[in-house]
Amino acid sequence: MPRRVLQGTVVSDKNDKTVIVSVERRVMHPVYKKFIRRSKRYAAHDEGNAHKIGDVVFIRECRPISKSKRWEVVDESAAAGAN
To answer: Which CDD domains match (predicted)?
Structure first.
């Protein structure tokens, strides 16, 4: 089964080897039929502390690294091959 790859923006880099990535998606409202934005925050593993606030990154599902980290930041070349 392939791993999911999501694109988002780094909103926090305060933890060591961890970034918080906000991923936005557009969903249609069930009654008004208007597209609204929903966002979710994911804790992702960043081994080299290479990404800072505001960076657009790709994250990929991985094995559980800690209690809250189930995603890892991937470089753009690997993410381009996955999509």
So the answer is: Ribosomal_uS17
